[in-house]
Amino acid sequence: MAGGIKKFVVGSFDDEKVLFPAVKNVRKAGYKIHDVYTPFPVHGLDHAMGIRETSLHTAGFIYAITGTTTALTFMSWVFTKDWPLNIGGKPNFALPAWIPITFELTVLFSAVGMVLTFCYLCNLAPFVKKHHFHPRATDDLFVMAIECTDKTNDAEVQAFLQSAGAQEINVQVAETGWWIGRYHKEQKLYKEEKGY
Amino acid sequence: MSLLKYESQLREPLVDGNKDYHQVTEDIIRPIEMKPSRLWYIGFYISVALLLFGVYSVYREVTYGIGQWNVNKTIGWGWDITNFVWWVGIGHAGTLISAILLLFRQGWRTGVNRAAEAMTIFAVMCAGQFPIWHMGRVWMAFFVLPYPNSRGPLWVNFNSPLLWDVFAISTYFTVSLLFWYSGLLPDLATVRDRAKTKFRKMFYGVASFGWSGSTKHWQRHESLSLVLAGLSTPLVLSVHTIVSFDFATSIVPGWHTTIFPPYFVAGAIFSGFAMVQTLMIVVRKVLNLQDYITIGHIEAMNKVIVLTGSIVGCAYLTELFIAWYGQNPYEWYAFKENRANLFSPYGWSYWLMMFCNVVSPQLFWSRKLRRNITVTFFMSIIVNIGMWFERFVIIVTSVYRDYLPSSWSTYYSPSIWEIGFYLGTFGLFFTCFFLFAKYFPVIAVAEIKAILKTSGENYKVKMTDIEKADAEKFYIEEVAHPHH
Hints:
The complex is a heterodimer.
Chain A lengths: L4 E9 L2 H13 L3 E6 L7 H4 L7 H27 L12 H27 L7 E2 L11 E7 L5 H11 L3 E8 L2 E2 L10 H5 L2
Antiparallel strand pairs in A: 1-4, 1-5, 2-4, 3-6
Helix pairs in contact in A: 3-4
Chain B lengths: L20 H13 L4 H27 L13 H26 L5 H26 L26 H34 L3 H10 L7 H34 L11 H27 L8 H31 L3 H12 L6 H13 L7 H4 L2 H27 L16 H24 L5 H11 L7 H6 L2 H10 L4
Helix pairs in contact in B: 1-15, 2-14, 3-4, 3-7, 3-8, 3-13, 4-5, 4-14, 5-6, 5-7, 7-8, 8-9, 8-13, 9-11, 10-11, 11-13
């Protein structure tokens, strides 16, 4: 699934204290930040970049109540309608005895649903490949990728990043989506190169 | 992942030494990239040998039937269910560290959470073996699942604690696995991006699911971890509660008590932390991670051990008191004659349990002993022996003399295949743990980086500097307007 080939100016920072004002200045100057890749969650960076809050937890809640409802309706149906069993003379609709299983299924549905949603939203799966702007983005660098349009002057953006405190600056042409398969050293898709 | 915004300078650093982000990556990931040591091979082969012995023991049990074990009509559960409860209990510490301590914002959890969660998963895998093979006709194991079948359809009994167990253990395993693996993704990506060999690039490329470290992804990852922690916290309490229901909802003297759920949960955390100590003390030494799993971490876990050990002790005394106060002759007989009487057949196991779980952990009121690695290591083993005997006492001493003296059991001791099965689960556990320590980052790299600047030794103001500083100036800088 290709997201399209685009051109980026990439700058890497080695300190989050320099990164924060840089993000602010880049946004103020009107450049479009494609993304910032960090080795660990940097608190407040999402707000600085103007990313909205995630609603993943809401999804988790919906999965949870789905689990609760599934458990309760299924057990009620089995024990009161499909096959009522006399268990020690107790009532068929034995709600207190169903609490443990209802609880377990609530947790199970919520956890599994949330993890799958998380993987879907972030395009995470085995064998999925993406363009990585800098191999040290998972080690010790904070890597900012600025998207270029036809009108963008990359030399200007590079100079701007330099003044903002970026260490390594370069221009990369990259696929923005994800794919399954191989890519060669320059991170270009084989598909693109061979023309099919 | 740290939710800490400010940390008191009075606290001990959580990461020792002069570290920067790259150094953290180097320290934790280098062992994965090197050839395993001879010690690793020796440990791994011993584990595999134990595992094979376990497989053979189980083969005998399946082929010739439960008669291969010395369990009998009176003591039906014996070693098997003792081991089941013991392994499930061990798992609990991992979830406590990763979930409950996350909600309580305890920064020290980052040093040990990854390995403790792995321990949870492997311990639950071991625990699951016991009820499954105890079924005898194991090819019928799928009968415990509620699926439309050709027997009616005859459904499972949703009112039975044994079925609650099926749901509790399988949910616990699934959720722990998801929590652990979603936390591993960023660290596996770090290993992938450092990989030099083709195989390693491919393996970690597949394992890391294409993680890139995007800010939006981190934001979702944080949300996911927090909610999974919130779900795991009641889950872990429910699992051992439900395991205790296996006993408490029956009317067997010695089992039929309402104190069981909290008492089992405390005991589970107690034994789980002991197992974390056993593993961590070895891991930090072998993989040279003393800067990340510090004496401070070991002390913090010892504090949990003395707390939960005392809760367990309190529960033992409470149930003894209630057995007497309740005036039920059968209940009191189970406690007075079957357990507390040292000269009854299993009296020794009761007092061994009392000594290991209640008396010995009291040593940890001493700060000096809490911070002593040798003492901690021995104590962790004593606690686990004690907690095994707790389950043995609960199961065997409650059932070996039932209401009908003619059915009283002769002395029960396990057969070699019963012992072999138990040793086999040790083999399974340690085989998995050795593979984990070799191929996965045993410490959460990204989480350590996130707390490095608040809790790293070289970023913290030194205590001696604080003591020398002007009190008023200190107040203004550190308390009224913290510069973090």
